[in-house]
Amino acid sequence: MKHFKLSYVYLAVVFLLMYLPILYLVFYSFNAGDYMNHFSGFSLRHYQDLFSDYRILEILANTFIIALLSSLVATLVGTFGAIGIHGLKHKGLKNMVLSLNNILIVSPDVIIGASFLILFTIVGLRLGFMSVLLAHIAFSIPIVVLMVLPRLNEMNPALVDAARDLGANQRQVLSRVVLPYIWPGVLAGFFMAITYSLDDFAVTFFVTGNGFSTLSVEIYSRARQGIDLSINALSTVMFLISLALVLVYYVLTMRQIKQKQVGSSKGGK
Amino acid sequence: MRKQNTNAFTVLYYAWIILFVILPVLLLLFESFKNINGQFTLGNYRSFFESGTYLRMTFNSVFFAIVVTLITLLISYPMAFIMSRLKHAQFWLLLVILPTWVNLLLKAYAFIGLFAKQGTVNDFLTFIGIGPQQLMFTNTAFITVAAYIEIPFMIMPIFNSLVEIDQSLINAARDLGATQAQTMRKVVIPLSMNGVRAGIQAVFIPTLSLFMITRLIGGNRVITLGTAIEEHFLVTQNWGMGATIGIVLIVAMVITMYLTRDRKQGGK
Amino acid sequence: MAQPIIEFKNVAMQYGETEVLKSIDLEIEQGKFYTLLGSSGSGKTTILRLMAGFLTPTGGDILFNGERINDVPPERRRINTVFQNYALFPNMNVAENVSFGMALKGKSKTEMKAKVAEMLDLVKLSGYEDREISELSGGQQQRVAIARALANEPEVLLLDEPLSALDYKLRKTMQYELRAIQQRLGITFVFVTHDQEEALAMSDWIFVMNDGKILQNGTPVDIYDEPINHFVAEFIGESNIVPGVMRKDYLVSFAGKDFENVDGGMRPNEPVEVVLRPEDLDLVPIDEGKLVVTIDTESFRGDYYEITAHDDDNNHWQIQATNQAEIGKRYGMYFDPEDIHIMRLNESEAAFDARLEQYDEES
Fold first, then answer.
1. Chain C contacts of B2, Cβ < 8 Å?
2. Among A40, B4, B192, C58, which residue's CB has the most CB atoms within a 10 Å radius?
3. What predicted TM-score, i.e. pTM, was given to this entire model?
4. Is B2 in Cβ contact with C73 (below 8 Å)?
């Protein structure tokens, strides 16, 4: 029993260390003073600063537009990409496509950023909204594929046969059987893509020009100037948004796990 | 057999592979053979391997990455093990994942406040009698922040591999006379090696390329491959050299993945 | 003879180099219960998938009511399938599963509702409309799968080992129910199984398959009593198979003795295989027996004793006896002339049928 107590202490300490810096940020966002030390009284003035800062609000809007648009497109392309990969009969070819798919996931952000920068410059695309959007779509697609593919692999192939057998054409098979089945995976992929997009700094930093900025890039340039407590206020807002997204994602995966259990109880060949 | 349903979006997916996966890598390789005036040259590679600066920087970067990986591994393995024995393991896992959803830059920014001369950590050091230290812009600061950011990515795969271990295997080991420590050494740790390998991959490679942390916490010194790439592409505009370092980084990545591959299945 | 509803003419199926089906000819008639019987890899499921339209044959023709349907996709065939693991759509409830085919055809809500109720009644699941698939037991899922396939009003229902996932008792019940449903609806069922007992219990007509070929087809009684060769005899129930010689018509020699029997039409002194079913053998006092055997083992099987013994020629025999025997003791073994079944070596099914017909005419 003593043994167990010690492990709980360890657990608590690590969790504390993991959350302390975040809570620290949140705490000082309510500081009446201007620094991240010596709390001089509760105030919401940094939030007022934040929400009256036109530039930040515009960047916030940009960031969410990029996240939503890129995730939407990436989900569409990635889902059908996964269906395409799933349908490949040749095993070697399938593995090759999967390896290519995973390159952007394992590559360091700087490499992705630098190589996209070269790509956009050669094509002659002006750096800004479009280049950032394309880059975000590009690095989100493989994530969606990886979220959707397991659902497809789990699906009993006889379901497709059954639908065809009962009179469904290819389109109806897709819309009535395959898509509803893989839907939790598609949604999870969409949310993953959103968070990847919201979280990305390095790739955006490379392919964004002078005129366009996202939240990460803005935080970076402000943080390089030193402490600014409106960043703390911003991080509190971002943390709450993350929390909400995690909750949605958690509910989705739980539902997926539940369905999985149902699926496996039926056996399947 | 029936013809494969070729959908317009599936075609887009393959276009993506060509345009955004294969082409950029080729372009990066191509760029690395260009000098600053755009002529074809092997000079970038020559100066990389001949000048002590680049080699020392690469060595430093690898060294820092190894230190960060080791620290995270030492903290994460016991953590993952304890978590995997708990009742609501998935909930605790969620608690580990949650900080990764906070923007990495915000986490780095928190440490600017913590590590400042008048910052909270120095207040604490003064309080226990050590006295204030220069924390910002030191290697220790960089290692601390990098380790802090990477810990969840080490815990997650190890946790997953530990949870997957069939409890009856552990019972069997105990039944056959192994002590708790022996069970740990002979059964649990070997079976969780896949998770450890995945964790090393997930920590080591990004740490090689973490340029924003070095900029914010490590001072303006170029101490990782990532910083060097950023510097060449965005500051000095010497893309050729930047691309060369990029290729070196890719090679380092491939070597890491090879060394930490799943041995039983011959790499997966 | 009536127009067959499904006809295979010289159908072959190849995957690359591997030949899964070799020149299959078969005819399926309206309103009967057919069984494709064979072990896994025998090609029975391939035949089913060819009928359903999931596969296109690499050779030969498949006819449906006399029309060639080789390239007709599954959704345009009036044939439906009950899949091995049921393949019920997990995102739909029972009613939605059953009405899936009708919904695709754009049938009205009321029409669908009536049909769903009718089908669920047929499979004894009335009132289960709103249940989720995950809430059903294996047996209930099985019934929904049958209802779903039948709701499409197929002319032929294909069943791919539908009972293999059920436990023994449930399987027995479903055998009776499937047979009852088929007789009530009067449509054709084509049933695939590897279980010979199931095949014998349910079918009007059985195709025994092995290695991509139909070895024998006939009524369950025909196939049980007159297996064409060693494989079929072994596959359909337990058999004693010993080598013998056909001295002349109606006289066969095996185990060192000559016996009167009822087979003919073979060359004099032709080497053959002799089949005797264990349940046709009786243990009697030595002087009343046709052969003398020594008992080796005995085990109680509930309604009979399973006995193994050997004769003086060292042939081994399986005997199902109602009375206990003593191990190591010698007994007489008795059988009737009509219990002896003769199999010629390498006889084709056509030659076999011709010989049987000839012999039937003669007797």
1. 73
2. B192
3. 0.81
4. yes
